[in-house]
Amino acid sequence: MALRLTARPATTVTKTGRGPGGAPARVATRSYRWWTPYLFMAPYLVLFTVFVLIPIGYGFWISLHQWDINVLAKPFVGLDNYRELFDPDSVAGPRFWTAMRATGIFTALSLPFLLVVPLFVALLMNGKFRGRNLYRAVYFAPYVLGVAVVGLLWRFLLDGNIGMVNHYLGVLGLPDDIQWTTSTPAAWWALVLVTVWWTLGFNSVIYLAGLQDIPAELYESARVDGANAWQRFRHVTLPGLKPVALFVVNATLLASANMFGQSYLITNGAPADETKTAIYLIAETGLGSFQMGSASAMSFVLALALMATSAVVFRVFRERQEKS
């Protein structure tokens, strides 16, 4: 039975043809109403509306009010919450842009490691050797841990007085008095290295899937042409990973810009709020100071910045793909 989707009323039409041996055969075709595809999409559309669209709209409505959850009156202030963020003489503005600067620093430091190190690990994972599955499991295992477990674990390991990291640095004859959680730039490197250790397994698995999707014939052709390992990596592996790389770059960029748990649990924003990221400040403003209007405005400004950054990433990849 052949199915044909059209916008005509639901009917059943019978056509006459020739079956095996020249005998007449009847083939039934059905036409469905225009709303049939939307009926199948309805469960997703309902969930998307309830859990995405409505919260976004409600959050924007909150950002237009002086919304203190402890006060019954919530006066409408229009765009005042947004103006305060761009006013250098306001209380919220300088703090917000300091937090945005911290977010940018963390993203700029962590992004190269989260792109290059997982790729190197994926190349090793893609090899054929004994214990390959165990090797893959070991590198992916930290990713299944929650941020609370990772944060508390490394907070004690990186403690400047009793931490195991400084202890083993002293054993190796290196400086053993580094304050990893209370001074910069040590605090930044602590956050970056912990994040790389925790999340590189996810990016490695994505890269591995991309590597396994590259046809083996391309590598064989490159070997026949006399290409060495570096040339095969440059001219076969990297071009084959472009679609995967776009996803990894964009996902890692967004995840790094939304970092909160590591800063909250390991450094507590120290020293002097230098490692307090934008998400940290938003949570502190909304849930700590109960100023939900200002926190919502910060959230939308951050979201717009991330959308613009993602658009730039897509444009760069598109231009490079067109050139190649």
Question: Would you mind describing this structure in some detail?
Answer:
There is one protein chain. The chain is mainly α. The chain has two domains: 34 residues, no CATH class; 230 residues, MetI-like (MetI-like fold). Helices cover 65% and strands 6% of the residues. It contains 13 helices and three strands. It has a three-stranded mixed beta sheet, with no helix packed on it. β2 and β3 form a beta hairpin. α10 packs antiparallel against α13. It starts with a strand and ends with a helix. The N terminus is likely disordered.
Short description:
The chain has 324 residues and is mostly helical. The chain has 13 helices and 3 strands. It has a 3-stranded mixed beta sheet, with no helix packed on it.
Task: Tag the structure with descriptive keywords.
three-stranded mixed beta sheet; 6% strand; mainly alpha; MetI-like fold; 2 domains; 324 residues; 3 strands; globular; 13 helices
Shape call:
globular
Name the CATH class of the largest domain.
Mainly Alpha
Distance between the termini: 45 Å
User: What percent of residues adopt helix (DSSP H or I)?
Assistant: 55-70%
CA radius of gyration:
27 Å
What order do the SSEs take from the amino end to the carboxyl end, as H and E?
EEEHHHHHHHHHHHHH
Low-pLDDT ranges: 1-15
Number of strands: 3
Q: How many domains in all? A: 2
Name the CATH superfamily assignment of the largest domain. Answer: MetI-like
Residue-averaged pLDDT, rounded? 88
Strand content: 5-15%
Structural class by SSE content = mainly alpha
